[in-house]
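Contributing new records

If you add data, match the layout below exactly. Sequence lines come first and carry their own label; structure lines follow with theirs. Keep one chain per record. Anything else will be rejected by the validation script.
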Amino acid sequence: MSTSAEQRLPAWAVWSNAVPVLAGVLLAFTWGRDMPPWVVAVIAALLFGAVLAAVHHAEVVAHRVGEPFGSLVLAVAVTVIEVALIITMMSAKGAKGAGLARDTVFAAVMITCNGIAGLCLLLGALKRGLALFNADGTSTVFGAIITLAGLTLVLPTFTTSQPGPEFNDTQLTFAALASIAVYGLFISALTVRHRPDYLPVGRDGGGAGSGSDSDAGFESDTGFENDTGFDEDGYEGERPTARQALISLGLLVLALVAVVGLGKGVSPTIERGVDRAGLPASVVGVVIALMVLLPEAIAAVRAAQRDEVQTSLNLALGSAMASIGLTIPAIAVATVWLSTPLLLGLDASHMVLLAMTVAVGTLTFVRGRATLVQGGAHLVLCAGYLVLAVSP
């Protein structure tokens, strides 16, 4: 077997270099044009391929820089896609897109905190009996998510300065600045001040996160610390070279640009499909969130399959943090030149779902271990949200 990191890549990684280029070429030829259905089908196929390519190249970069820095790469990349799609669709839809940012951000929170996190906890528990992670890190970031979600998605429903579920200019400015501040503190904790809290349990000194002797014994009995074929960050194969990481970074950027552009191209088809099906307009936000979070979901599931539940949660919860902490300020700035009002407040049923997520998530993430029941509970909450999005 070759010791080259490049030769250790899975077979699909070969085409992951070509797909972003093909997607970029297709974007150049289709931008701003009306397209027949068969072209839309081709765009959708390449869009999906570009998402998978983005997953691979983000993981290469993440492998190079190591955890927990690597988790930021994909989270920020996903947020860039999300913000770009929201702004382009809001500008195109006008007043009809007033709630698109709220719907997309809330969908991202529910999908990451319940769907992706729940699936990864379930996989971890199925593989090892218990899914082990660092309670100090996960509880800290979940607390920050709760703070920002309450501030930006719940409070606007109850403020009285503006009619409807929206902030006035002063309130929106404060919410944007507070979101950036909390996200900045999270980045500082993740990468510098409390980095061990976000490292995989049992590796690089991260084992203290579970905080109990029984957890340490569980790791020893299952052989978690003695797995072969993975480096100290939980990635398979040798660490990529600087050249490989730079190439992947460039292809990652190209893939993200292609996803944003091609996503804009297929968005009218998505909107027409939602309208013809008689579904609520908020379903568009769910579709956007599902599309842009696909790279995050794939990367998180692959990490869970490597017994790296902490890395999975870094990806899931970090993406939720980025979705609120970066998307809301970006949209707030965009409203300066967009004539569209910005509706942020959730309705009653969504606030109930958020409250249930807070309660269940608190009981899950403060313990440092999760069973099948806890993973299943989060998945049920995500499924409930999706059902109510289609049938409110």
